[in-house]
Amino acid sequence: MCTQTIQIDPVIDGKACHSCRMSIPLEAVSVDPDVGSIEPEVTPLLRMLDARGSSTIDLVGQSLRVALQAVCDRPDRAGDGVLHYLKLAVEAYVDARQLTRIDPPPKGGLAPWQASLAKRLILEQMDTNISTSSLAKACNLSRGHFTRSFKQSVGVPPHRWLQERRIERAKELLASEDCALAAVAIECGFTDQAHFSRVFKIMTDYTPFSWRRIARPEASRCGAGGTRD
What we know:
Blueprint: E1 3-8, E2 11-12, E3 15-16, E4 20-25, H1 39-50, H2 59-73, H3 80-99, H4 112-124, H5 132-138, H6 143-154, H7 158-176, H8 181-187, H9 193-204, H10 208-215, H11 217-221
């Protein structure tokens, strides 16, 4: 069976991009002057390409769109086989683009996956004080860019968000357990009890001991919780 190979090999700045190769049997390219409109079959394929967004579609997608439009405009020049193979090519192109898709960060902030990853890493290493550089590297950003983008997306810098989560965790421990303040400080990632008490007071207007007395008045009467600071 004779075949004709159609190759689409876009090259930008000397580098090969995604490519799409189709071998269409020549028998499929039959001319039928009586063929009706095939727009209902072409329109869904064009929508599949348009769903990728005009800012992300590459030369292959543009070429497929042009080919589909040409078939739609001159259905008498293409048989059913041409549309069939174009449909296969569009589906393969869209699938490949979805597998390699990386969402760009929204203007002025982190992409959703970056914000989610950064928060998860912070929570997983809350007691070890993960560095901002490590978070930035995980998100494929420079340290400065990550810090600015994190604040724009979350509302506070990474270190502040970490401190807030530590204080939340400390409140849970103070309200539910009788462990000493020094133990709470270490478990929540603070250097020592003095550091813990200082940050807690700044962020809540209470010392840990005072907050525990309010949250668990029965514990303060029993003298639980270590020193008063």
